[in-house]
Amino acid sequence: MNQTSNTPQNWSPKHTKMPNLTPFSKLDKTFDRASELKAFDQTKAGVKGLVDSGVAEIPGIFYCPPKEASNSIPEETHLGVPVVDLEDIDKDPFKRRQVVDEIREASETGGFFQVINHGVPVSVQEEIINRVRRFFEQDSEVKKQYYTRDYTKSFIYNCNFDLFSSPVANWRDTIVTVMAPNPPNPHDLPQVCRDILFEYSKHIMKLGELIFGLLSEALGLKSTHLVDLDCNEGLRIIGHYYPSSPQPELSIGTTEHSDDTFITVLLQDNMGGLQVRQQNKWVDVPPVPGAFVINVGNLLQLITNDRFVSSEHKVLANREGPRISVASFFSTGRLPTSKLYGPIKELLSEQNPPKYKEITVREYNIYFAEKGLDGTSALPHFKI
């Protein structure tokens, strides 16, 4: 894990010729978005390739209406994302009840909270951020062998999973690997991040079980309830690389969306830029050293019958960069499965009838992926 990279951070792309993409300022009726998306995708160099080529304006395919791209600062100072301290919750029953109450309130209102003293070593957190950075900052020709839109592959590198379906291309590049329930062959993973992906996943699986236990108790259920439902069965590790944007006011790091997961465990570096919608205001989720951001996913909102909410969130583009984040998605994704998930029966009553159909995780994920990040939730599609 102490492997060093011989690639300078700001290397010059010698082998990748970037296409002549139309700058935003020159968009007109002749702009062929589909052709330019295809040309950009075929470079396999991502947004970082554009930045390394020296673009001074964002290409039109990345143009985001200013009201979406801009940072909305809330006037209500009481809005924010709580930081929950997990220290000693297995030793002190009073502290555990207090933590469960905090998580319940956060999950029922904003759907977001941060956790500290969670047991994951800071050294492991720093190393996964460092390794994701190194993957993206190695020579483009080395990365290209992993560039694909085939999500059956063990390791995926691309730019925008929904590049050809979303209305706005996000200013970010991404790597994805499924670590559970079927871990990949280590040799299918890039050497630069191979070892840390396995070590990090081991810690995240343990943390996920802890969080699911606290969420179960917050619902008034036994602590193993969500784990017994296999909510922690699947784990995808997703590394995002947000290069600096020459026009951050016209671009977006990640379009507003809610996650296709039971929960997401996010590690962000110190750059900032993550925002969550609360009471129709965009609220910053500031980086807290050593903390993980936990957010309720759409699948957890579905099985709790809307008791817990999966809030919309987005990432702003920034003139400074890069920003690195690592999202751990607890979901089996598109893996074939016959297991049905619907509102938890223990939470239902005559006053609270089921609002959603029973569906498979695969069914949800396929619909989510086809819809793309278009600024709307996928949940209404599955309502009764």
TrEMBL record:
Domain of life: Eukaryota
Classification via Pfam families: 2OG-FeII_Oxy (PF03171), DIOX_N (PF14226)
Region (Disordered), start-end ranges: 1-25
Compositional bias annotation for Polar residues: 1-13
Keyword Lipid metabolism annotated: no
UniProt entry keywords in alphabetical sequence: Iron, Metal-binding, Oxidoreductase
Record domain Fe2OG dioxygenase: where: 231-333
Family matches, as InterPro entries: DIOX_N (IPR026992), IPNS-like_FE2OG_OXY (IPR044861), IPNS-like_sf (IPR027443), Oxoglu/Fe-dep_dioxygenase_dom (IPR005123)
One Gene Ontology MF term: dioxygenase activity
Family: Belongs to the iron/ascorbate-dependent oxidoreductase family.
Name of the protein this chain belongs to: 1-aminocyclopropane-1-carboxylate oxidase homolog 1-like
UniProt source species: Cucumis melo
Gene name for this UniProt entry: LOC103483608
